[in-house]
Design goal:
This protein is an alpha/beta fold. The chain folds into two domains: 64 residues, no CATH class; 151 residues, 3-Layer(aba) Sandwich (Alpha/beta knot), CATH 3.40.1280.10. The chain is 39% helix and 14% strand. It contains eight helices and seven strands. It has a seven-stranded parallel β-sheet with strand order 3-2-1-6-4-7-5, with helices on both faces. The chain is globular and about 60 Å long. It binds S-adenosylmethionine.
Length: 223
Amino acid sequence: MVIPRRYKRLQQVLGNRQPDLTVLTEDVHKPHNLSAIIRTCDAVGVFEVNGVSSKSKMPTYSQVAQGSEKWVRLNTYPNIKNAIASLQESNFKVYAAHLSQEAVDYRTIDYTQPTAILLGAEKYGVSQLAADLSDGHIIIPMLGMVQSLNVSVAAAVILFEAQRQRLAAGMYERVSLDSDTFKRVLFEWAYPEIAAVCHQKGEPYPSLGKEGEILSESRSNVN
Ligand code: SAM
C-alpha cells in the first residue's frame, strides 16, 4: 500500500498540474535535452509534453530527467503538421520559440490562456512549416555574443514565466484536471504495477480510500 504521506504528495502534485499548458518539441533529438525539458515541465506543473521526431524514433529518457518521465506523459505525433493541428483543435495557441524577424519578447504573451510552446531542433531550430503554422513567434532577448540558448534552457526560461503568470492568476490554487483524469492518474502514480495489470486484463482500476488504500470491495478487480 502507498504510504499516506506519499499519497498526499501525489494528490498535491496532481492538483497543481496545468493541462492547458504544454510544450511541443520538434526534432529535439538529444536525450539529455528532452529529459531536461521534461524535468522542467514537471517542476512547472505541465501535465503532458508533446513531441515530434521526423528523422528517427523519439529519444529515450536519460538519467537527467531524474525520474520525471514517470510524472509527465510524452505524447508523440507522426509529424509536426498533425501535432500543431491537434493542439490548435484543442484550443491551444501554439507559440514557436523561434528566432525570426516577427518574434515578440516572450514576456508579452498571456500564458494563462491555453498555451503550447514549440521548441526547435538543437541545430536547425523550428522548421519553416512549423513556424508558418504557429500562432506566433516568441524570442528570449539575447544581448551577448551567442545567438541562441540551449533548447532546454530556453524551455525553462519561458515555462517559468508561464508559471509566474499562472501563480499570480491563482491558477495553482484550484484543481484543473477533470475528476476522472485526476483519479485515473492518481491511481497510476500510486500503484503503477497494479495499474499495468488492470491494463493488461482490460479491467477498471480499483477505488481508493481517503488515505490511498485500495478499498476491499474493489480489490477483486486486480487479482
Ligand atoms: N540555429 C538554430 C536557430 O537558428 O533556430 C538554433 C536552435 S536553438 C539551439 C534550439 C531551440 O531553442 C530553438 O529552436 C528555440 O526553440 C529555442 N531557443 C534557443 N534560444 C532561444 C531564444 N533566444 N529565443 C527563443 N527560443 C530560443
